[in-house]
Amino acid sequence: MTAFSVRLTGTKYGCGGGGCGACTVMISTYEPTSKKIRHYSANACLLPICSLYGAAVTTVEGVGSTKTRIHPVQERLAKCHGSQCGFCSPGMVMSIYTLLRNNPEPTSEQMIAALAGKYCHFLICRCVLKPFSSGTLCILFSTDEFQPLDPTQELIFPPELMRMAENQPKRTLVFCGERMTWISPVSLDELLDLKAAHPKAPLVVGNTSVGPEMKFRGVFHPIVIAPARILDLNVVTHMDDGLTLGAACSLSLVKDILTNAISEFPEEKTKVFCAVLQQLRTLGGEQIRNVASLGGNIISRKSTSDLNPVLAASNCVLNLASKGRKRQIPLSDIFADGVGNNTITSEEILVSVHIPHSRKGEYVSAFRQAPRRENALPITNAGMRVLFEDGTDIIKDLSIFYGGAISTTICAKQTCWTLIGRHWNEQMLDEACRLLLQEIALPGSASGEKVDYKKTLIVSFFYRFFLEVLHLFLMILVVSFFNWNIQNLSFSNNSLLFQDPCHYPGVPMEYRSVLQDFQTKMPQSIQIYQDIDPSQSPQDPVGRPIMHQSGIMHATGEAVYVDDLPSVDGELFLAVVTSSRAHAKIVSIDTSEALQGPGVFDIITAHDVPATNEFYYSDDPEIIFARNKVICVGQIVCAVVADSDVHAKQAAAKVKIEYEVLEPVILTIEVQIEAIKHNSFFEPKRKLEQGNVDQAFETVDNIIEGEIHIGGQEHFYMETQSVLAVPKGEDKEMDVYVSTQHPAIIQEMVAASLGVPANRIMCHVKRVGGAFGGKLLKTGLLASVAAVAANKTSRAVRLILSRGDDMLITGGRHPFIGKYKVGFMNDGRIRAVDTKYYINAGCTPDESILVAEVSLLKMDNAYKIPNLRCWACACKTNLPSNAAFRGFGFPQSALVTETWITGVADKTGLSPEKIREINMYKENAQTHFKQKLDPQNLIRCWNECMEKSAYYSRKTAVIEFNKQNYWKKKGIAIVPMKFPFGLGTRYLSQAAALVHIYTDGSVLLTHGGIEMGQGIHTKMIQVASRELNIPMSRIHFCETSTRTVPNACASVGSAGTDVNGMAVKDACQTLLKRLQPIINKNPKGTWNDWIKEAFEQSVSLSATGYFRGYDENMDWEKGEGQPFTYFLYGAACSEVEINCLTGDHKNLRTDIVMDIGCSINPAVDIGQIEGAFVQGIGLYTMEELKYSPEGVLCTRGPDQYKIPAVCDIPEQFSVSLLSSSQNPYAIYASKGIGEAGLFLGCSVFFALRDAVTSVRNERGLKNTFSLNSPLTAEQIRASCADDFTEMVIGIGERCLKHIKVNIL
Fold this sequence. Notes:
By secondary structure, the chain is of the alpha+beta class. The chain has 37 helices and 46 strands. GO terms for molecular function: 2 iron, 2 sulfur cluster binding; FAD binding; iron ion binding; oxidoreductase activity.
């Protein structure tokens, strides 16, 4: 059963692996013994329907709707402007709704925990935290109109399920499917019998491990046993020596039990509990913890388990059972011999786990480092325990376990044995680190594993444990010294308690901050914008923070996306078959086995394309189906159509393709070397130059040279590529419902592939669940695949890419290598710059040449450089072609610019902000391509950001903090921005609109723009409302369609509101002009009176509007032109704190000031700024795309690829719109805002660099260092060089010479 089949489409399928939270639902169960109902959130994509027997499932439709009533949670999300594209909004609603069902007055910590499993590249900060946080200062909405939460009005638990639970005896459940059988026993004996009969059958409780393996790795289990209903596996027993927890207990339940135990037992007994609880807080999201079981986490023995190392180190015991036998073993035994361990036989069941109390003189800690602090698999984790001889610092017992290092949890037993009997001092620390590096052998990895980083974490974690124990020693010593009468006690001279603690200061103050992990706090945000003129009509909505037109429907799940469309009679589902080779000749395609699969209808190849299979938008084609060879992993070779999505995917996996590898295969990040070697470029290469660069280099005081690597970025729109192609049955007509930014190009490509005129193909777009530039040409190719299949089969064909296939096929932001040479004077004036950008375009051109051009045009950012030369070339490689992405080259080239700005600061000894101020545009000037600009608002943004952020006083505070803390450092940076607006040529910015007025006075509006979260339809309704002088409630937008607005340009480049707004305004003014004589005759009449009269006078009540586009041009031969219409300006100041031992960091505060002219809708525009900024944080600090040496994308889902989450939002986040700013070139003096804010995320990058610089200066590391993007924890840790990193490089041979602590 799926949401699609029962028409409950509010629950969205985002990733299929429980990683994004878009599919969150509430599960409710009734326990007849306690008479209690339990509510918990869960990921629907992982929940087997069989596991829900007797449970009630509440989807977003059950919470509230526009047809019944809107729930307060839904109301707040919408009215607080917490929804943009809306695709993930139902999941957010369900997370908060479930929390409120259990806790009507939740704490901020509970809210953060509930949202930690949410994944959204749009605006996690505003989509989630503002609507539900009472602590947020916000002037974009009024809370007075919100309906209160009334728990008495919630849905009741179904009485029939309650009666069934109370009256029906438990019985074994057996569900048989097409390929597998699900068995759910009710007793332990029955379970043991089943396991004896089916030893290979997995036990499934939460399906968080077996589910993804079956779904993504092709693992098949014909029989699955579900033991969750067995009481023995759900036991919770408090014993004298600890807790015994059933193996089927959920991790959330374990978390609650341990929390209660910690509050009830003496601190001395709860150290194990505290360590386990610490790991549970960040293990997965709330939805995962609610269903994942303690036993499953242990038995899977995965190296990524955060619990296994600490449980093993703590001497936890496993209670096992098999038919006729029960036994106990230490949990550590299952990791004794590595991956091949067979301590637990295939017939044995883990019944329960015993977690012991800690003892006097025993210390337990757990550590982890992950790509993201929350809801992310660890890079490395650890569990450590030490027990001392009574009253001494002599090690009696020691346990050290690591996870993430190899394929399972590993014990450093040789190290532990060696250290027993040692004193807990520096000598022991030095020896331990060397022993650990020698014992924990990490194999080199071809897939880019962070071997050196993991080794550094291994010793850094132990050092952290060393400090923690040392610190606790001192605390115990102080308490003991002052609470006991020493004269009356007999202690040996070695006794700690015999010594005066004042003589033993323990861990120095400057080291102690590292003993505290970064905690996620509820972000506090401020938004400031200029209010409307008091004289403006109350009915005029322009300039007001109007709620997103679809906000309520987003929150209720009623907003329809492509995959929500009802099924068409006879509809088929399509799955693509992609290349597994990066560059190879196709020798043969064997489809025989696939065609025999159940439900398979046909297989589509290049031979089935009636007309165009290759589109030449440049010298190199964009290809629908590979015909004779493949040029990247992920290229579409053929497709399977079947009666269901499951059958199509099963058959696709059975298609066998034989290849013959071709040379060369160009993959590496050093693309310029490979590209030059093989002359592998897309033409033309571009160059801009002004002044005399070579001569200027001869006259400067200093020259620096360097390079920076900037990684790519996955679009990670929440709605994957989606197409529904429906043949109409006559005249070769076809309707194509598609998630795209550019319906006209879809129409053109589909028509060309089918060999029919464009007027036979109608493309429809209601809304798009995120795009960011990723739904243009690639979507056209995918739509053509579906259309060719629909044409061949004469059936409707639905193509919805899985998250993994979407990431594999579509490419993303272009990776850059920027090389620079900069000449400057001693006073900081930059006189000459020579830069080269090598852009990894991928295997086809797509938009790469345009990206290269824009990167050159915008590379100066905010700086006037008198002598400048810049080059850009798009390198052809055997990776999926990269595409347009928010910012379109500017985020990369401007980061290169800011990098050499900071390099000049380092060389001159001046601060980076001083270098920026010295070289910033200050008066009317020309850019390096001879376009005039007035930088007045740039200077205003810079000065206001300086003032609002209190930059200089905070910088002083940062310096003081860094003096007082050795292992944690803060950094602060402020970055300006000049963002040119324009598409380079007039025809790309033309737009059209169509406005109908009906006789009842209602208005239907349509235009060529696409709603993808940026609120364009809302703004267009605001424009029409102002022009027609009628309320917004009278105006409706239906869909964007090539049927109503032909030849519309793509919604790209932040231009949607500018150009379509002009077209809508033109159409409305045409209508108003027709109505004016009627209005003049009856000035006191109503709108309905005028419309009725117009109809009776045969006045046309329908009008088109048109905007020719901006007069933009660029002559690349001369290197000059007017490619932009106007400029946006801004500045951002960010402050961060880093952990020098792990490389982890926390974003403390960000202040942004942006010049966006006169905002049409401040709520939408500020949301765009915030969302773009957070996406920029992802680009510059965490989002890593990793490829294997064979060109296979390794990061194909939220498990491997991490975008920002709640924990990454600055704790204090302020956005101010520059007041009194006018723009004569755009609709109502506004400015296009969608892209500009992303670059400001680099203020976090440079704040991190500032913190790293402080570390290096303190440690005497004066040599020049470079940081690449994304600036991950791995890079930060490597740059914070110390004895531990030196030990790793020297393979454990060096001593800890510079790390000193005062030892007891």
